[in-house]
Input
Amino acid sequence: MADGESAFPLVEPGLWVERIGSKVFAAGRPALFLDRDGTINVDTGYPDNPADVELRDDIILAIEAANRRGIPVVVVTNQSGIARGYFGWDAFARVNERVLDLMAEQNAFVDMVLACAYHDAGKDPLAVADHPMRKPNPGMLLEAGRRLGLDLKRSLVVGDKPADMEAGQRAGLARGWLVDGEGSTMDGLSVLPLRGAHDLEALLTAIRSL
Output
């Protein structure tokens, strides 16, 4: 681990696992899993500047709904920009703090953040092809499930890429919402679109029914 990184919640060089807050959840609760860039905040490519962070308004309502229901909210994000050397964990920490602060201003809160920096185009020790924690692999969801005692089958996933949906499917989830996507079925996972008010209401209804 490089100098300065010991202050970060890194369980290995390319995996960030951070428990946010002190809320206690009963075992067997479902979770709301969310990708970050392009799902919670507007995707700017490889975000490394907190000043550029802008939230997507619709997803805040979903996070608020999960908070009210006592449903754990878990962010699972690939961060290949770190592996590629575009920025470090310090920049990730600043951007992520800004995302969480902006959410808190709207009374929306996350309970855990997992970030995977491994990528086959990275530099050692992050140059790992098909790392089990990197979506579409389900490792981050499974790790959160283990740490929080989640019922993954009843959990929901929201993301803006097919890899987010595949990670959910491989973790055993039954339902996912694809930002600006199309509805489909993925080997047991029902993928619904998240494109407008009607789709958002379907997501909110699903969260409220957990």
